[in-house]
Amino acid sequence: MLLKGLILGLCCFCAQIAAQESVTLQLKWTHQFQFAGYYMAKEKGFYKDVGLDVTINPADLTMPDAFSAVANGDAEFGVGHSGILQERINGQSFVAMAPILQYSPYCWMVKDTSDIFHPRDFVNKRISKVSHNDSNELMAMLTRSGVNTRLLSVYNGDNPSQAWIENRLDAMQVYLSTEPYNMTQRGISHRLICPQRYGIDVYADILYTTGKMLSTSPETVEKFYQASLKGWRYAMMNMDEAIAVTQILYAPNKSFHELAYEAEVLKEYIMPATTSLGHMSIPKWRLIADLYGIHQTEFDKVKASFIYKYQRPEKMELSWMLIAAIIVSVISIPLYLRLMFSKKITV
Question: Domain SsuA/THI5-like: where (predicted)?
């Protein structure tokens, strides 16, 4: 009876040790293929395999800012844009873990009949409002082409897409895999003017956490990092399955065709031929700092702690299996001695 009780207690103890740790990922937009790697990491059990129970929260469209949720502690991880570097300079202890998109997916979209073919053609044009944090590269592209962006007429009204269709705008900020698809479906011819083509190369959809999370739970951060990249690799290798999972479980409002278009466009941004998944470098972040007008001395102060690097804790941490083995050994010693003592009395 005593032995059964000990074994039962041991099982309960091990179950508690092996219990999954709950963490939250805050997305920068609503559910779509843009975040398929995280969906696959969750649905294929990659997070569960490393002891994580992950909740994936879409952005609130009235305030699509993943930074505040992570900064306030409502989420341990987030997906953000390259403006995360400016946030770090401003005092937020964000740590960039992996840029899922190696290039910016933001472009200017103009009508096919427009006389805008190059960034320098934006002089005296009417443009949609641009977030200087989320897509600063769009304005930087114009500035580098000699356009005084402060003299441009900026549309601040509602529904810029409709304003663009009605020719109240000459150029509209778009996400490469979204608005162009919608306009094509509506039979509206257009063309794109994108920063990457003109030498402005920034990271996008950056997975990040906080310095506090990294210092207090470094192994949790590393587990999430590795499982997330595993999910992205799986999504890239199994595109049809990833699209289906995204549609059925996360974005039922989108058609398979729409998600397939998004996947086809983004795959070259996620895993370009010359770059490994999630790769980032200090030189490229230095260029991004220049884009945001961040002085080199400011960048140098934060670069070492801004770019994620896993450092295994020095203290020895025992796995639950090893702890269980130790407990079994401790329990077995008195039982063994009792058995031996009983045999001696019998003899």
Answer: 32-242
pLDDT digits (tens, 9 = 90+) for 205-230: 999 999 999 999 999 999 999 999 99
Determine which helix (DSSP H) or strand (DSSP E) holds 57, and give its type and residue range. strand 52-57
Q: Which two tokens stand for residue 336?
A: 């063994």
Q: Which residue has the tokens 């997070």?
A: 47
Residue % of the chain over a pLDDT of 90: 72
Q: Which residue has the tokens 């810029």?
A: 160
Q: What's the confidence (pLDDT) of residue 336?
A: 54
- Enter the pTM of the model: 0.83
Per-residue CA distances from 219 to 225, 235, 265, 345 (Å) = 10, 24, 34, 52
pLDDT band with cut points at 50, 70 and 90 for residue 2 = very low
**What is d(CA 68, CA 22) in angstroms, rounded to the nearest whole number?**
19
Structure tokens at 235: 């999504």
List the domain range (segments joined by +) for residue 191.
106-198
Whether the CA torsion 169, 141, 71, 102 is positive or negative: it is positive
Q: How far apart are CA 256 and CA 247, in angstroms?
A: 7
Angle at 158 between CA 152 and CA 159, to 5 degrees: 95
When the pLDDT of each residue in the chain is averaged and rounded to a whole number, the result is 87
The bridge status of strand 77-80 relative to strand 204-210 is antiparallel
Residue 186 lies in a domain: yes
Question: For residue 338, is it within any domain?
Answer: no
Say if CB 280 and CB 97 are below 8 A apart: no
Residues in the chain: 347
Quick one: CA torsion of 313, 319, 320, 324, rounded to 10 degrees? -130
Both 208 and 302 in a single domain?
Answer: yes
Vertex 30 angle, CA 110 and 252, to 5°: 105
Contact between residue 164 and residue 128 where contact means Cβ atoms under 8 Å apart: yes
Supply φ then ψ for residue 31, to 5 degrees: -65, 130
